[in-house]
Amino acid sequence: MKILKFGGTSLANAKKFLSVSKIIKASFEKEQVAIVLSAPEKVTNLLINSIERAISKKNTQLDICIIKNIFSKITTDIHATNSNFPYKKIADIIEHKFLKLKHIFHGISLLNQCPDNIRAKIICFGELLSIVIMDGILKSELYEITIIDPVKNLLAIGEYLNSTIDINTSTQRINAINIPKNHIILMAGFIAGNKNNQLVVLGRNGSDYSAAILSVCLKGNVCEIWTDVDGIYTCDPKTVKSAKLLKSLSYQEAMELSYFGAKVLHPKTIAPISKFQIPCLIKNTENPNSVGTIICKNPDDAKMPIKGIAHLNDIAMFNVSGSGIRSMTSIISRIFSAMSLSKIEIILIMQSSSEANISFCISQHHANTARNILENEFQLELKNRLLMPIQIIERLTILSIVGSGIEIQKNVLYKTFLALSKTNAKILAIVKGSSKYSISIVIENNFSISGIKIIHHVLFKKHRIIELFLIGVGGVGATLLQQLNKQQCSLKSKNIDLRVYGIANSKRFLVNMNGINLNSWNQSLSMSTQSFEINDLIQISKNNTLVNPILVDCTSDQKIAHQYPILLNNGFNIVTSNKKANTSSLKYYQEVRLAALYANKKFLYETNVGAGLPIIENLKNLLHSGDKLIHFRGILSGSLSFIFGKLEDNISLSEATRQAQKLGFTEPNPKDDLSGIDVARKLLILARETGLKLELSDIKIDPILPKEFNFISNTNDFMIQLKKLDQMFFKKMEKTKKSGKTLRFIGIIEKGGHCQVKLDEIDKTDPLYEIKNGENALAFYSKYYQPIPLVLRGYGAGNNVTAAGVFSDILRILL
Q1: Residue 397 CB burial class (10 angstroms; 0-12, 13-18, ≥19)
Q2: Listed residue (98, 358, 442, 401) closest to 253, CA to CA
C-alpha cells in the first residue's frame, strides 16, 4: 500500500488535477494506493479572509463568487478534456455547497463572530470539493473508488482548529471498512472528527499530517508527499539559488529542519511516520521523474554530515536576569508553565554559565502578551529587585544548521562565525540543540538572507566566490576584462568562481546577474540604456543579497573615489587603481580606512604606487613586523622612467613622451606625469602608509616644466608645446652624462618625514641608476635594511601590469 498526498499547488487548475490523476493511475498499476488531497491553491486563504470580512460585516458575495469560480473553471476545463467526466453532477454539488456557504457567511455577519466549530467547517471546504472532483475524474475512467470519511474514521483530540489524531482508534475504524484491494482510496486532508462526531481540522500542514496518519492506519510501505519542488534542499532554493537537493535524510534531521522553519514537513507530520518507521518521499508533481527526497531511518547521504540550514524570522528574545535567579530553582519551569498556559511556544532557551541570566526566544507576534505574562508571574521578584526589568530584543532571526554529523564536524562553528563576520551580523546567542542534531544562532532580521547565503556557501560549496562590478573600461579596465576572461577556466579548476555582474563607463552601466559574457561585453555595454549610479549599484547588491561583492575602480574619477565609505558600509569590498581616495585630505584617507574596518571589508590599492609591483603589501608587512622606515628614494613613475631612459638614447623629450603615451605608460594627459603631481601622489601614499600625517600640499615638487605650462589643459596643446623644451632637456642630459651621471625623476622621504619630488642627477652607485624603459624601483632604507636598502624593481606602467596588479588584489578578496 502506498499513500500519496497532493498539496494545493498540485491541484491549482484543471491541467494539474489531470496530471495528478495520471500519477495516481501510474502508481495504482503497481500497488494499491490511498490518496489524500488538499484544497486547490489559494482557496483556504480566500476562505479565511472571507470569514474575517463577514465578521466585519463586509459584503462577502464577491469573495464567494471568486472561490466558486475557481472550482467552476476547474470542472469546466476538465470536462472539455474528458467528455466522460460527470460535469453536471459535480457542478450541482458545487452549486449546493456554495449556497450553503453563502448562508453560513450571512449568519456570521449577523452574529458579528465566527465560532471555532463553524470556522473549521468553512476552512476545510476546499479539501472536500477536491475529493469530489478527483472522484469524478477517476470514476469517468472506470476506476473503483472508496472514499474514507475523515470525520467518521479519524478520531481527533483537541480543539476545533488544531487537533491531533488518536492513531489506535483511527486504525481500528479504518480497518473495519474492509476496503477492496482493487479500489483507489480517496480521503480529504486536514479534516478529522472529535468524539462527538463533529468536524475538526488539524492545524498547520494538516493535509500532510492526514497522509502520515493514514499511512500508519493502512500500514503503508511509503508515504509520498507531492508538491511543487523536487524535494528537500540544503536551504530554501528561493533564497539560495545554488541550494542542493538532498537525496535522503533521517527522521530526526527532517524534524529539526522543520522545527526551525524549513518548509519540509511539520514536526507533527514527521512524528507518526518516524514512530512507525514509514519512509516518506517528497516528490514534484510538475517533475514526477525527479528522484525526490526520502526521509527514513537510515539515509544514504552519510557523506553529508550537515544536511541543511533553516531559519525563523521575526523572533523576539527575552532576557530574564538578576541575582535572585540562582536561588530560584523553579524559574525555568515557571517560564515554561506561564508561556504554555497562554499557548506561546518557546523556540529556544539559553542559560548563562553564571546562571544569573536566562534567555528564551518566541515568535515576535506574541512579544507583548509574553511581556505582560512574565511581569505578572514575577511581579514580587521584580518589585523586590531580585530580578532586573525584563529585556526584550525584537526583529531577530534564528539560523539553524542541521545534520546528524554536527557533533563530529568540529569546524562548523568556526566556519559559521567566519562567514557571519563577513556580513557584520551581530550574534546574540548560540544554542546547541539537545538532540545534538542542530546548532542555532540568533542574529538580527536584517542579516538573515545574507547570513543564510554566506553560511550555505561556506558549508556546502567547495568553490570560493567573487562577485565583481567594474567601473572604467579604458586601457586598464579593458585589459583587466581580457585577463579575467582568459583565466576563468583556470580559476574554476582551482575552485574559484569569478563572475562579473556589472560593467560601467562614463555613459552606460551593463548589469547581468547571471554573469556577463566577457567575450562580448563591449557590444553588450554599448547597447545598454542604463547609466551608472552608486545608489543603483548598492540596490542591486541588496536585491540579490550578494555574498562577496567587489567594486573595482579603474577610473581616475574623484566623484567615485569619494563614495568609497558608502560602498564599504553597504557591503562592498573595494579594489582600486584610482589614487584619488588615497591622496585626498588626510581626514578622508582615514575615513575610508575606518569604514573598511567597521564594515569588515577590504580596501585594496596595490596599483596606486607601482602598478603590478607588490609595494604596499610588502611595506605593510615590514612595518607590522616591527621595522621602521628611515629613508626612502624611488622612481615611482613608469612613464618618467621610460621618458628619461629615452633621453639617454638621444631621443627628444616630446618624442619620448609621445612614445610613452602610445604604450599606455602615461596618465590620460601626460602633463600629470611631467608636472610631477602623479609622483607626488604616489609618494604621499607611501608616506601615509608609514604613518606620516601629510597632505598632498606637504609634498615639495621641484617642477621640470616652466610655469606657463600650468595653464595648458588640453592634451594635444600640451604635446605641441612640449616640443619647445626638447633642446633644453637635450643639453641637460648631455651635461649630466659628461659628469658620469644620469637624470632620474625621483621621490624622496627623508628621515624627518620631509617629502620631495625632483629631477636628480645620480651616479652608478645609486640603486636607481639603471632604472629606465618603464621600470619602477623603490629603495627602502629601514631599521632592518641598511646600509644596503630593500629594493623593489619591475615594470611600473602599462595596461598589462596594472591590470595584473588589480587582478591580484581581486584574488586577495576570496571568500
Answers
A1: buried
A2: 401
pLDDT at 82: 95
Residues composing the chain: 815
Q: What are phi and psi of 427, to 5 degrees?
A: -90, 120
Question: For residue 536, which phi and psi values (nearest 5 degrees)?
Answer: -65, -40
Identify whether the C-beta of residue 807 lies closer than 8 Å to the C-beta of residue 480.
yes
In angstroms, rounded to a whole number, what is the distance separating the alpha carbons of residues 414 and 614? 31
What gap in Å lies between CA 224 and CA 437, rounded to an integer? 24
As given in the structure block, the three cell numbers for residue 380 are 514580587
* Strands (DSSP E) found in 680-731: 700-701
The DSSP call for residue 40 is P
CB neighbours (10 Å) of residue 669?
18
pLDDT greater at residue 161 or residue 422: 161
Is the pLDDT score of 281 beyond 60?
Answer: yes
Which residues 6+ apart lie within 8 Å of 7 measured at CB?
Answer: 38, 207, 208, 225, 226, 227, 228
**CA torsion, points 233, 237, 240, 245, in degrees to nearest 10?**
30
AA identity, residue 201: V
Full strand arrangement of the beta sheet holding 790-795:
700-701, 755-762, 742-749, 629-635, 775-782, 790-795
**Coil, strand or helix: which one is 679?**
helix
Q: What is the dihedral of CA 516, 520, 525, 528, to 10 degrees?
A: -80
- In order of 48, 57, 64, 96, 115, the CA distances from 109 in angstroms are 14, 5, 14, 20, 12
Q: Cell digits for 4?
A: 500519496
682 is catalytic: yes
Alpha helices in 570-705 (DSSP H): 586-599, 607-610, 615-624, 638-648, 653-662, 671-674, 677-689
Contact criterion met (CB below 8 Å) for 208 and 220:
no
| Exposed / middle / buried, residue 72 (Cβ in 10 Å: 0-12, 13-18, 19+) | middle
Q: Do 307 and 370 meet the contact criterion of CB atoms below 8 Å apart?
A: no
SS3 32: coil
Per-residue pLDDT tens over the stretch 90-146: 999 999 999 999 999 999 999 999 999 999 999 999 999 999 999 999 999 999 999
Residue 517 scores a pLDDT above 90? yes
- CB distance 547 to 457 below 8 Å: yes
Would you place residue 407 in the very low, low, confident or very high pLDDT band (cuts 50, 70, 90)? low
Cα–Cα nearest to 583, from 686, 675, 460: 686
In angstroms, rounded to a whole number, what is the distance separating the alpha carbons of residues 92 and 72?
10
Give the three cell numbers for residue 35.
490518496
DSSP-based three-state secondary structure for 563: coil
Q: Region of 149 please: left (phi>0), alpha (psi -120 to 50) or beta.
A: beta
Most confident residue range from 69-78, 665-674, 708-717: 69-78
The active-site residue out of 682, 700, 707, 732 is 682
The answer, yes or no, to whether residue 328 has pLDDT greater than 60, is no
User: CB of 772 within 8 A of CB of 645?
Assistant: yes
Distances (CA, A) of 792 to 247, 527, 789: 55, 44, 10
pLDDT, position 492: 87
Does position 409 have pLDDT exceeding 90, yes or no?
no
32: which 3 cell numbers? 494499491
pLDDT per residue as tens digits for the range 683-715: 999 999 999 999 999 999 998 999 889 889 899
The greatest distance separating any two alpha carbons of the chain, rounded to the nearest whole angstrom, comes to 118
Give the C-alpha separation, 481 to 531, whole Å: 20
Residue 649's Cβ-count burial label (10 Å; 0-12, 13-18, 19+) is exposed
Calpha distance 385→122 (Å, rounded): 50
Structural contact between residues 655 and 729, judged by C-beta atoms closer than 8 angstroms: no
Task: Report the distance separating Cα 29 and Cα 51, nearest Å.
Answer: 42
**Least confident segment among 396-400, 424-428, 521-525, 564-568:** 424-428
Could you identify the residue written with the cell 610613452? 660
Provide the grid cell at 91: 457542478
